[in-house]
Inverse folding.
């Protein structure tokens, strides 16, 4: 029942986007808009070699612009998740440099894992509260933020449910609520919807896109699904294997809000074909 | 609603099936004794055992409480020390590396062989000696299970805590201990029975007499005097206590895990 709910209820949505919708769509209607935007994080000839000798990444140059929705697309083992882990600071590059152009952003990042990675012994509310609790905030201080984040992902009424009682899509919503409860500036998502069925995935895609437009996060989104990448992103970086590297970098120049019409449009097909071609090249 | 579910529980196959097996076993036992004409000093019939138990209830039950005291003190000490040392192990890998082999030694040394030594060393404090023996039997499963649990934390959750700059203390309280809880409780269930066995074995070796003698002493004396029905009655009491300990620990475990762990989740919920 709850999976059918939206991240944002339509009336709420209209109030949120009341004025900004026009400006935001025009701001994103041109590909040049991100050329002038300051980068948030820069990977400069970054390589990552695991102790086993596996070269996960070789000479990766990537600059993530503030406020953009950047997707990393690539086959399994191309190092997409490694890039995300490096940005998150969960591991260090073996060679090259990873710089935060805005160091204050570094502390304001949140991560959404591939499997929702919830604490099974905590209910929805406590799972969402976790980052704030770890920051030393009391239950009283955090209650409003927690309630808001849960409402934002459409899980109002499920606060006391435990993860095992939730569907895959709902678990992912909890995971997103936990990520956004800290009001992050940078959101790193590691194939968050990879294990979901197509209908749930599409719904979550749409809701994520709306939230992103509302909250102005910088999003780095890892996926192996080209449709998802084109639909959501302002820019898509295609990665290749052996060794992991970036083979193409494509700006998706289409206005938001994107709808079903965009999915059916010829330009969507063109982007998709271009990405598929780059992916095929990356496999060689 | 709760009463109904309790009645349902009592009438469920989980309860009825072992109950039926028990009935069949006792009937078979009774028939065997009657048909083969076995004398009570070889194998007393179930009715005689029950009768003896009722007649000697005062004696036997007070002995059982002595054994129970040893068991419970040893068990609680084992639970506390097992948990504490397991936490210590995860704080510093070197502590684990240096101490774990000795925990294994403690586990693999036959209790019967070292119990006499312990009883001689602690001859001023027999209760303490018996508790120590039972503790040796009960300690290891808790230690090894809890250590395994504390080290079995999901990698993504670990990363999540790193990402949010969790302190080691927060990581322990909010992540590692809850992850280890099912393992710890599994260890407790094993150790509950083992501490009883440890207590009984130690009592056998100690052979303490007088008013403070445990149930093992009663079994020993009854067998010396060829009071086999009395021996069986005492045995029945020990077994009963073992079952009660296991059942109580299972209830505690289910209550603590019912919301989230597969082992305790009610499928109808």
């Amino acid at each position: 029942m709850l999976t059918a709910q939206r991240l944002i209820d339509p009336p709420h949505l209209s109030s949120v986007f009341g004025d900004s919708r026009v400006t935001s769509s025009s701001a994103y209607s041109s590909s040049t808009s991100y050329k002038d935007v300051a980068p948030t994080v820069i990977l400069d000839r970054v390589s990552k070699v695991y102790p086993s000798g596996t070269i996960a990444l070789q000479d990766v140059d990537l600059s993530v612009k503030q406020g953009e929705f950047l997707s990393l697309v690539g086959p399994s083992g191309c190092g997409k998740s490694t890039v995300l882990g490096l940005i998150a600071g969960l591991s260090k590059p073996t060679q090259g440099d990873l710089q935060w152009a805005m160091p204050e952003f570094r502390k304001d990042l949140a991560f959404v894992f591939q499997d929702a990675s919830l604490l099974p012994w905590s209910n929805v509310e406590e799972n969402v509260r976790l980052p704030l609790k770890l920051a030393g905030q009391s239950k009283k201080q955090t209650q409003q933020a927690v309630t808001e984040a849960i409402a934002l992902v459409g899980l109002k009424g499920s606060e006391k449910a435990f993860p095992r009682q939730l569907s895959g899509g709902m678990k992912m919503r909890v995971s997103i609520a936990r990520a956004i409860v800290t009001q992050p500036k940078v959101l790193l998502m590691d194939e968050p919807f990879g294990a979901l069925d197509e209908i749930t995935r599409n719904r979550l895609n749409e809701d994520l896109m709306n939230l992103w437009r509302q909250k102005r996060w910088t999003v780095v989104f890892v996926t192996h699904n080209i449709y998802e990448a084109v639909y959501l992103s302002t820019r898509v970086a295609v990665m290749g294997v052996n060794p992991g590297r970036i083979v193409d970098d494509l700006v998706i120049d289409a206005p938001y809000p994107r709808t079903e019409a965009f999915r059916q449009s010829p330009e969507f097909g063109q982007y998709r074909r271009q990405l598929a071609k780059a992916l095929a090249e990356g496999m060689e | 609603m709760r009463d109904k579910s309790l009645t349902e529980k009592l009438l469920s196959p989980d309860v009825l099936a072992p109950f039926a097996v028990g009935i069949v076993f006792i009937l078979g036992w009774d028939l065997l004794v009657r048909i083969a004409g076995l004398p009570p000093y070889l194998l007393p019939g179930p009715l005689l055992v029950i009768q003896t138990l009722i007649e000697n209830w005062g004696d036997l039950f007070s002995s059982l409480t002595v054994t129970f005291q040893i068991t419970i003190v040893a068990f609680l000490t084992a639970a506390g020390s097992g948990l504490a040392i397991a936490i210590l192990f995860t704080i510093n890998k070197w502590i684990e590396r240096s101490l774990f082999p000795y925990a294994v030694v403690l586990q693999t040394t036959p209790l019967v062989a070292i119990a006499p030594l312990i009883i001689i060393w602690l001859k001023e404090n027999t209760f303490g000696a018996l508790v120590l023996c039972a503790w040796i039997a009960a300690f290891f499963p808790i230690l090894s299970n809890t250590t395994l649990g504390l080290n079995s934390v999901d990698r993504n959750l670990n990363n999540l805590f790193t990402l949010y700059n969790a302190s080691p203390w927060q990581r322990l309280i909010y992540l590692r201990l809850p992850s280890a809880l099912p393992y710890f409780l599994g260890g407790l269930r094993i150790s509950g029975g083992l501490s009883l066995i440890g207590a009984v074995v130690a009592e056998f070796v100690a052979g303490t007499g007088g008013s403070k003698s445990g149930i093992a002493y009663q079994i020993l004396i009854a067998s010396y005097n060829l009071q086999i029905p009395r021996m069986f009655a005492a045995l029945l009491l020990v077994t009963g206590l073992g079952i009660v300990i296991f059942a109580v620990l299972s209830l505690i475990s289910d209550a603590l895990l019912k919301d989230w762990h597969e082992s305790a989740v009610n499928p109808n919920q």
Notes: Chain B touches chain A at residues 154, 156-157, 159-166, 170, 174-175, 178, 181, 259-262, 265 (CB under 8 Å).
